Amino acid sequence: MAMDHHQQHLQTFRAAISTLLFPLQQLINAPSSSQQWLSEKLMTRQQLQEDNTRLKEQELLLRVQLQKLDTLQIENIRLRQLLDSARRIGERVLIAEIMSVDLNPFSRQIVLSKGSQHGVYTGQPIIDAGGVMGQIIKTSPFSSIAMIISDPDHAVPVTVNRNGLRAIAIGTGTSAELNLPHLPNNADIMQGDLLVTSGLGGRFPPGYPVARITNVIPQPSAPFAKVTALAIAKLDHNQEVLLVWRNDPIQTAEKEDQTEPCTTVEQAEGVCDEFVDDENINHNAQTPSEPNP
Q: What is one process in the GO biological process aspect for this record (predicted)?
């Protein structure tokens, strides 16, 4: 055995013996192999259904988890856009979630998850990553109600970013359309012009994007043109908004009780009465007077 261990004299003999014994090994293992094969082939229908159900449940669970990952990714993108918007603004801001939406077809209002305990005050502007969304009209300790700029009772003093022309953007009750009344037919405004907040009235800080002009239709039979715009903010698609504080002294809770309600159409028109008078004067100056007979 020692010589065979060192010189491998019997290796050929062992190989021959192994070849001869291989069928015997297979015969000895046959019962267990056959039992396993039969158990797999004779598996009951119920077991197959149970396995199928279990696998379907696991697949459903994995799909739900994948959907959550997609949702988290989209939410992360939205929050990054809001934070980027906050950095561009350079003012104090606070993110609030939209808790519910008013289903009244004649109004555009939302309920936010922040209230007076968080420093929210009546008249405070709200924006999203694109532009102005509206302003707070009512507060409670832990929630608040905001009116969207497309509400027919809402008005925003704006200017045309291209030339500084002042106007009023009034909600129409539709999802994102705004009207600009009291603009003379010869006003320097065109499709595609960007409208930003003017700061008049003290509600909205100046320079916030509001809308883009979509239609300018002169009306020769009327003193004013028909001008419409489309809001830049995603008024019907947001889940979070930014509450904005101005850089000037912030309104405190004591001042909140003295704060007027949100900017209405009449208030905005009062702010811009001087602008309308100026435009009418300019319009008359550009129209040559008829000679006396």
A: regulation of cell shape
141-177 per-position pLDDT tens digit: 999 999 999 999 999 999 999 898 999 999 998 888 9
Instruction: Calculate Rg over the CA atoms of the chain.
Output: 37
Q: Are 134 and 151 in contact (CB under 8 A)?
A: yes
CA dihedral 196, 200, 202, 203 (to 10 degrees): -40
Average pLDDT, the chain: 77
Residue with tokens 């409670």: 140
> Cβ of 67: how many Cβ atoms within 10 Å?
10
Q: Residue 138: exposed, middle, or buried by beta-carbon count in 10 A (0-12, 13-18, 19+)?
A: middle
0.85 exceeded by pTM = no
Categorise residue 207: left if φ over 0, alpha if ψ from -120 to 50, beta otherwise: left
Among 272, 249, 50, CA closest to 167 = 272
- For domain 91-246+256-277, the question of CATH label 2.40.10.340 is answered with yes
**Euclidean distance between CA atoms 173 and 104, whole angstroms:** 10
The residues near 96 (Cβ < 8 Å, ≥ 6 apart) are: 112, 113, 114, 120, 126, 144, 240, 241, 242, 243
Tokens of 291: 């000679």
Cα end-to-end span (Å), the chain:
144
Among 212, 76, 201, 196, smallest CA distance to 127 is for 196
Tokens representing 198? Answer: 């003017």
